[in-house]
Design a protein that fits this description.
The chain is an alpha+beta fold and 347 residues long. It folds into two domains: 95 residues; 228 residues, Bira Bifunctional Protein, Domain 2 (BirA Bifunctional Protein, domain 2), CATH 3.30.930.10. Helices cover 41% and strands 19% of the residues. The chain contains eleven helices and ten strands. Strands 1, 4, 5, 6, 7, 8, 9 and 10 form an eight-stranded mixed sheet that branches. It has a two-stranded antiparallel ribbon with strand order 2-3. Strand 7 and strand 8 form a beta hairpin. The structure holds phenylalanine. Phenylalanine binds next to strand 9 and strand 10.
């Protein structure tokens, strides 16, 4: 009898010691539990099987003791499991702790590209004057880029723009003026659009020319549109971009799709017109090409030139960005040098 109770006490002892020494996690607690309580392999489980070898008169008391031991062990392991659960939760909280008072890691934010900033500013200004925004295309048909703009195949003006041809029919747009034709084919007057994003390509490469650059095309077609409308709009535009004191002047020029054609200069915003390095002593800076839409172009699009007239202008966005932000070399716009880009935050 006492041998048996020693054995029971021994197992209790073993469980308590095992719990104390080896158990650091719920998984370990579960393993230890199996060693005692697994119905087939556990020490207490096996004691149940001994029943049949026990003398019948002792069987009841043995069974009772095993049951008591079993219940006690179950209780102990349940407590241990709770303890381990709490411990693991504490550890997890510790690991996942966030100190909200810690200073945040600083992240540098980028700016929009200077050309994008200029494009946005221009769109805002022209939308403010009632213009709608149309899309330009990077790939055009010869017809839209040249032919319909009154630049036939053998026209010398084709030499003004060294073209990247993709095939005899398709080319990389050399100017955004094709947007005039696309617009007038779809829409009848009154028309008042600026076209973007304006990516254009010419085989041209030096400090002030990049083979890919950006323009924004403007087109107004209505009854009695004259150069005065153009001048009035552009005056407003340069004041908003270069400052209230600036103004424009028109010089005669030539484009096959406008008649008359003009080159628009802005008064030098650096010296106020007195003459300086930026304006090369002239007091004026060349800004864009424009003119009154050639009647032939209107007729090409099925618009009655007796009834309607139009004005068009093409603004170089890269050039405007370089002028506004004092960038001397067009390459700086495309090198993505953060020292340059981070200085220009104008939106
Ligand atoms: N497309 C001309 C150029 O690229 C600019 C322009 C546009 C001139 C509209 C007149 C009218 O130089």
């Amino acid at each position: 009898m006492s041998e048996r109770s020693d054995r029971f006490a021994g197992i209790r002892q073993e469980i308590l010691e095992g719990m104390e020494k080896r158990v650091e996690s719920r998984a370990a607690a579960f393993e230890l539990r199996k060693q005692f309580l697994d119905s087939k392999t556990g020490k207490i489980g096996q004691m149940m099987k001994e029943m049949k070898n026990i003398a019948p008169e002792e069987r009841a008391s043995f069974g009772k003791s095993v049951n008591e031991l079993k219940e006690w062990a179950q209780q102990k392991f349940a407590e241990l499991d709770e303890k381990m659960k709490a411990k693991e939760l504490r550890l997890r909280y510790e690991l996942e702790k966030i100190d909200v008072t810690m200073p945040a890691e600083e992240r540098e934010t980028g700016n929009l590209h200077p050309v994008t900033q200029i494009r946005n500013q221009l769109m805002d200004i022209f939308v403010g004057m009632g213009f709608e925004v149309a899309q330009t295309r990077e790939i055009e048909k010869d017809y839209y880029n040249f032919e319909a703009l009154n630049i036939p195949k053998d026209h010398p003006a084709r030499d003004m723009q060294d073209t990247f041809y993709l095939s005899p029919e398709f080319l990389l747009a050399t100017q955004t003026s094709a947007a005039q034709i696309h617009t007038m084919e779809k829409k009848k007057p009154p028309i008042k659009i600026v076209a973007a994003p304006g990516k254009v390509f010419r085989s041209d490469d030096d400090a002030t020319h990049s083979p890919m650059f950006h323009q924004m095309e403007g087109l107004v077609v209505d009854k009695k549109i004259t150069l005065c409308d153009l001048k009035g709009m552009l005056d407003l535009f340069v004041k908003k971009i270069f400052g209230e004191e600036t103004t424009t002047r028109l010089r005669p020029s030539y484009f096959p799709f406008t008649e008359p054609s003009v080159e628009v200069d802005v008064s030098c915003y650096a010296c106020g017109g007195k003459g300086c390095k930026l304006c090369k002593g002239t007091g004026w800076i060349e800004l864009l090409g424009a003119g009154i839409v050639n009647n032939k172009v209107l007729e090409n699009c099925g618009i009655d030139s007796e009834q309607y007239s139009g004005l068009a202008f093409g603004i170089g966005l890269d050039r405007t960005a370089m002028l506004k932000y004092g960038i001397g070399n067009v390459k700086l716009l495309f090198e993505s040098d953060l020292r340059v880009l981070s200085q220009i935050n104008d939106n």
